[in-house]
Amino acid sequence: MEGNVSIMEARERILAVIHHEKPDRIPCDFWGTPEVVEGLKKHLGVEEDIELWKVLGIDKIVNLTPSVLWVPVSHHYVGPPIPEDQDIWGVRYQCTTYLNGKAAYWEVKEHPLAHLNTIEAVQASYTFPRVDWFDFSTLAEECKRYQGYAIQCGYMSPFYTYTTIRGLEQAYIDLIENPEYVHFVLGKIVDFLYALHEKLFEAGQGYIDIAEVTDDLGTQRGLAIGVKMIEEFLVPHYRRLIGLTKSFGIKVFHHDDGAIRDVIPLLIDLGIEVLNPVQWRLPGMDPKALKEDFGRLLCFHGGVDNQETLPFGSPKEVEEEVCFLLETLASDGTGFIVAPCHNIQPLTPVENIIALYRAVHHYGRL
């Protein structure tokens, strides 16, 4: 395994492909569950995350985003005490194990707006989070610890937040039956996200390279909601949040699972610069076509299938998939960051993970 990627080279390589400049090789990123990270470190005989990145030669995008949408709440939180199974929105979670107890996820068990069906009920009975509940005074120093790596900090997901506090099924019903309610609650969510991230970006003191303005708009077959509905309910909020992000010179990353081909032109128009995860086996997501149609305007991130190839394929099949993605999404020698489509899961063989990064180093040199 080539593990001689210098710290300074990593950030330069990531930013080069986002700017559509040619690096010395196509960069790679890593996403994995905590169990996968710990298993890799044990297998490779390292103790720290940064040692893992160096051994595998990963141009890691370091994510320092404070946790505001999930538990446990980040150390930046200084607001009123909340239960350890609750986030700042009042959503309650339960820890669910799988793989015979070898791994765990926090799953939503209680939506605070589930039974508040009118704007008046929300105004009377629900407290939206406040910006003064967070202290980012240490953020710049945290960023400095990873100088030489690209820093990602910021997560703005209006509709995902809405579905979490309202409930997924009811959220989709609301779009048809209670649109004024949706507009009101989304407005409150985005007012908070905007103010929070303005404070966050200021505290970053120029060290933040990338932030997410994102949502889950796709399914395995197509969009979860139509483009016209996205334009009505979400586009004004995306435009506002993207405008804030760009005003700080920060690149806009958009994570959106599924078959989202039909909304990509709109995302580009809004100013999205990095698109993740490129689930290329889904309808409309052929990487060659995506590159031809959108490659001049987008940097793609992800591509390596962790529904089939990574967990169930062989190291050779992982290598072949990396080559396929390099030949398509990086056909012009730029505009692509190789990474798993989502967090690598604990059932994935270590050999397949190592094969991914070995292939990038072997075949991704320019």
Structure description:
- It is globular, with a radius of gyration of 20 Å.
- α11 links the parallel β6 and β7.
- It starts with 6 loop residues before the first helix and ends with a helix.
- The protein has one domain: Alpha-Beta Barrel (TIM Barrel).
- The strands form 2 sheets. It has a 7-stranded parallel β-sheet. The protein has a two-stranded antiparallel ribbon with strand order 2-3.
- It has 366 residues and is α/β, with parallel strands linked by helices.
- 43% of the residues lie in helices and 13% in strands.
- α2 packs across α3 and α12 runs parallel beside α14.
- It contains 15 helices and 9 strands.
The major sheet is characterized as:
7 strands, parallel
Global outline: globular
Query: What's the number of extended β-strand segments?
Result: 9
Q: SSE string, helix = H, strand = E? A: HHHEEEHHEHHHEHHEHEHEHHEH
What spatial order of strands do you see in the largest sheet? 1-4-5-6-7-8-9
* Distance separating the two termini: 18 Å
> What class, by secondary structure content?
alpha/beta
CATH T-level topology: TIM Barrel
- Average pLDDT taken over every residue: 95
- β-strand percent reads 5-15%
CATH class: Alpha Beta
Count the DSSP helices. 15
